[in-house]
Amino acid sequence: MPDTPQTPLTPTDEAVLQEARRRSRRSFLVGGTAALAGLLGWRWLSTGSEADGLSGPLRTVLDANARVAGRYFSPTHLAPEFARSRARRPRANGSVGLDEELDPAAWRLRVTPAGGTIPREFTLAELQALPRVEMTTELKCIEGWSTIVTWAGVRFADFLARYPLASAAAPFVHLTTPDEAYFVGLDMASALHPQTLLCYEMNGQPLTAEHGAPLRLVTPVKYGIKQIKRLGHIRFPAQRPPDYWAARGYDWYAGL
pLDDT tens digits, residue range 106-127? Predict the structure, then answer.
């Protein structure tokens, strides 16, 4: 069968075809350049020396975000509080540091003074003798869920006012479980926030073991990863201390 003769392109058709080819080449170049830039950017972010369990460039980005959040932080900026009737039992996320059998009678909070080496021990009764503070705030998990909870305990600031164990030369707080398996680092300003509690009650009842009995940290200006359960030891280092989740790639500051 003979070939069907092709209809000659009109000047208009030829112009359209040339424009389509030009745009296709430009799209290819733009797309290729963007892909290359993305690849190079990812290689930059994912390579380099490691810092706190994350590549140096990525940790630098997170630290920059933390500095911005820190500039907006204020002790007068309070997390919202709610009616106690809205309080619910939160999920018992996380069991690191809770594996050992708890003996409430034998438990002690150990606090090593800034610049010191010998810890001082406190019973739960000594903490409960300090001014009691109750608040109903939102516990926010970095996974995306949140629950309104009523907490009660003593302000960390009131504890340090009664027992001056910190120092201006040590601007950080390091908190660990009794077995040291879970550990949290805080800047001193966050620790002294008026809503940061050494907490021993939840929704009107003593803490349960899965929620950190006999004592945990509560601070609604931080995500839940900072609110360590079964608090066992507090130290006041001069340098930024390690943090369990920061060592696994999360933001060290973890502020809201």
Answer: 999 999 999 999 999 999 999 9
